[in-house]
Each structure stands twice: as C-alpha cells, then as structure tokens.
Amino acid sequence: MIPGIAFAVIILFGKYEINGKRVLPLAGAEVGLLSMVAGLVLAIGTTYQWIHYVRGVADPEPVIKSWTWWQIGGVPFGIGEHIDGLAVALLLLVTLISTLVQIYSLEYVRGDRRYTHFFASMTLFSAGMLTMVLAENMCS
What pTM, to 2 d.p., does this model score? Predict the structure, then answer.
C-alpha cells in the first residue's frame, strides 16, 4: 500500500515547481526510496512476528484475512491477504531487492529526462509485486 501511495505522490508532485523550485528536490526519487525503506521495515517486522507465531508449531496455519469490497448482483468482489512462510520470505526478498534497486538507480539514472517517470514506474512495479505476494487468491 505504501508504494502505491508513493506512486501517486511521485506522479502528482515529481515535477511540480513553486517559484522555480521543485517541491521534491530529487524529482520524486526520495519518495520512492522512502516508501521502499518503509516497506522493508514492515517486512522485517512481519518476519519477526511470523517467527514468533510459528515457534514450536510443526505445521503452522497461514494467517488469512478477507473482506468483501463490494457486491453486484449477488457476486461479491473481495480483497484479502494470505500470510504464510513463503509469503513472508518473498515479502522480505521483494522489499530488500526493490530498496537496493532504488538506491542504485538514484545515481545511475540521474540526468535522464524521464527520471521522475522512471521512479514512478519502478515504485508502481514494486507495489504490484507486493500485492501479488500478499494476495489471498490470485484466481478470483
């Protein structure tokens, strides 16, 4: 969720200027990087909680939360999350690699005319990956 909000902030304010001075000094790269660092911190916290949840349990049950988002003609559309050992491992991996890519890209892409759009699209991609990792069910 954090990278998704960061995407919107980068798109809206990445190239925005007030009196010839940019609102975001790094053209939105700092927002993308901070969102991924925040995601990494939350992933580390989730990993810590998962380790304590499964301590001493031979076959732990996944944590599944689901909500009905809206219903049309008797067909419910829901959202949810599914957290198990694999999801926690991938959550940590995706946030770590995305954070490292954001850090590397700060200097690598500097000076490019589409710098802001690059960080916006990279942040959106990370948000999509994290959504897929935590999705309750990818089929419906």
Answer: 0.80
**Where in the sequence is the domain holding 38, given as residue range(s)?**
2-134
Tens digit of pLDDT for each residue in 43-66?
Answer: 999 999 999 988 878 888 888 898
| 140 occurs within a structural domain | no
- DSSP code per residue over the chain: -HHHHHHHHHHHHSS-EETTEESSTTTTHHHHHHHHHHHHHHHHHHHHHHHHHHTT-SSPPPEEEEEEEEEETTEEEEEEEEE-HHHHHHHHHHHHHHHHHHHHHHHHSTT-TTHHHHHHHHHHHHHHHHHHHHBS-S--
* Tens-digit pLDDT profile for residues 95-135: 999 999 989 988 887 777 777 888 888 889 999 999 889 88
Number of domains the chain is built from: 1
